[in-house]
Specification:
With 225 residues, the chain is of the alpha+beta class. It is 41% helix and 13% strand. Helix 1 packs antiparallel against helix 2 and helix 5 crosses helix 10.
């Protein structure tokens, strides 16, 4: 989870899907759905193997018994009166979340992680609120629009500290923001943050809707988000 932070939602989704034994084939479909709008170089089998290596996922048989207990035994076939050994197909691989994986799911509190992030970067709370506010629009917000709204803000531009990517990736890791194929959109966690953690944060930058300039253009003064 630490090394693959941008894929956190996918990894946790895999663990949730494996609450009961799930076949390798069905798991591949689960992962494809989880990554519908998020490209990854990792094949579904890679994801499962990495989680298995980390101790969060276990390879089992359909009844939940450890897959490692399986010992392949050849079958005997008779051809022209002669007996021959023939290989047998191994049982289908199923995946099930381990005890360590269950502990991760039980202790994963994205809103708490977001609260910690905002506390650590309290000088930029207004920017986090700005990003979430724009992403709360029905159509979401593009990366270009976010860049226009954030990158020139004096709090990060003079001197240069961050670009918009920092805020988007941080919010995504806290499950407050999700990529929907063409735009970023706020999640339920993000809405809870806007209504709670960021409710009293003022942001004196606002942008009018301007269809001729990608949806975000002129700055208006004296308006809070």
């Amino acid at each position: 989870l630490a090394q693959m932070a941008p894929h956190r939602q996918v990894l946790l989704g895999v663990l949730r899907a494996a609450d009961k034994p799930i076949s390798d084939e069905d798991m591949a479909q689960v992962i494809a759905k989880l990554r519908e709008h998020k490209y990854s170089v990792y094949a579904p089998s890679n994801i499962c193997t990495m989680l298995e290596k980390a101790g969060a996922l276990e390879r089992v048989r359909e009844d939940g018994s450890p897959y490692g207990n399986y010992e392949p035994k050849p079958s005997i076939v008779v051809i022209d009166g002669e007996e021959y050994y023939a290989p047998t197909d191994p049982p289908t691989i199923y995946w099930q979340v381990s005890e360590a994986g269950r502990n991760i799911l039980a202790t994963d509190k994205p809103l708490d992680r977001l609260s910690e992030l905002l506390e650590n970067e309290r000088s930029f709370k207004h920017l986090y609120k700005r990003v979430l506010t724009l992403a709360a629009r029905d159509e979401g917000v593009t990366m270009s629009q976010l860049s226009t709204a954030v990158d020139s803000d004096p709090s990060i531009a003079e001197p240069r500290r961050f670009f918009i990517q920092h805020f988007v990736e941080s919010l995504e890791c806290c499950e407050a923001l999700a990529w929907q194929g063409e735009t970023w959109k706020i999640t339920q966690i993000g809405r809870e943050a806007l209504n709670g953690l960021l409710a009293n944060v003022d942001d004196d930058h606002a942008f009018d809707e301007q269809p001729d300039n990608g949806g975000i253009a002129t700055e208006t003064q004296g308006i809070n988000w």
